[in-house]
């Protein structure tokens, strides 16, 4: 069995962004040479997420509205965490959206259902953050 590890770096220009990282992940899968196995993709920061869904702009706006209702950014004073930082909402949003995804690899490709794509969700951006790609298989 082979193993491959890569860190991808993202630097968002906004506090919150959703980025389709599927092409990056597929590229790393090709580089790995693994044809059958599993791929783990996870955010390495507590205010960012990796998840699978549809790449549709209306849905992305719905995510933003829904997350903002569940964990509004402001007022900052509503959160106990916000004493030295103002990102308590980002921690909560990350918990809701999840830390990682695992995808089957079949014949050298991500084994997705219709419309599935991998996204990096940033909830406290404007700085460099990492995503881990770990692939195991043959």
Task: Describe the model.
This protein is of the alpha+beta class and 138 residues long. It has a single domain, classed as YjbQ-like (Jelly Rolls, Sandwich). Helix content is 25%, strand content 38%. It contains 3 helices and 8 strands, in the order E-E-H-E-E-H-H-E-E-E-E. The strands form 2 sheets. A 5-stranded antiparallel beta sheet has the order 1-8-3-5-6, covered by helices on one side.
Describe the structure using short key phrases.
3 helices; elongated; alpha+beta; about 140 residues; five-stranded antiparallel beta sheet; Jelly Rolls
Poorly predicted segments: none
User: Would you list the SSEs in sequence order as H and E?
Assistant: EEHEEHHEEEE
Structurally, the number of domains stands at 1
The CATH topology turns out to be Jelly Rolls
Largest sheet: 5 strands, antiparallel
Major sheet: arrangement of strands: 1-8-3-5-6
In helices, the fraction of residues equals: 25-40%
Q: CATH superfamily name?
A: YjbQ-like
Q: How does CATH name the architecture? A: Sandwich
Query: What is the highest CATH level, the class?
Result: Mainly Beta
Count of runs of 4 or more consecutive helical residues: 3
Q: What share of the residues does DSSP label as strand, in percent?
A: 35-45%
The count of strands amounts to 8
Radius of gyration: 16 Å
How would you summarize the topology of this molecule?
Elements: E1 2-11, E2 17-20, H1 22-32, E3 37-43, E4 48-53, H2 57-70, H3 88-97, E5 100-106, E6 109-110, E7 117-122, E8 128-137
Question: What's this model, at a glance?
Answer:
This protein is an alpha+beta fold and 138 residues long.
């Amino acid at each position: 069995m082979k193993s491959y590890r890569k860190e991808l770096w993202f630097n968002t220009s906004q506090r919150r962004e959703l980025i389709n990282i599927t092409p990056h992940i597929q590229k790393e899968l090709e580089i790995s040479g693994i044809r059958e196995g599993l791929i783990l993709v996870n955010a390495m920061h507590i205010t960012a997420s990796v998840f699978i869904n549809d790449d549709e702009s209306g849905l992305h706006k719905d995510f933003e509205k829904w997350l903002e209702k569940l964990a509004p950014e402001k007022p900052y004073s509503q959160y106990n965490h916000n004493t030295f930082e103002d990102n308590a909402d980002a921690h909560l949003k990350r918990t809701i959206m999840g830390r990682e995804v695992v995808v089957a690899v079949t014949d050298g490709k991500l084994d997705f259902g219709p419309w599935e794509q991998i996204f990096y969700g940033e909830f406290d951006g404007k700085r460099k953050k990492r995503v881990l790609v770990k692939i195991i298989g043959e």
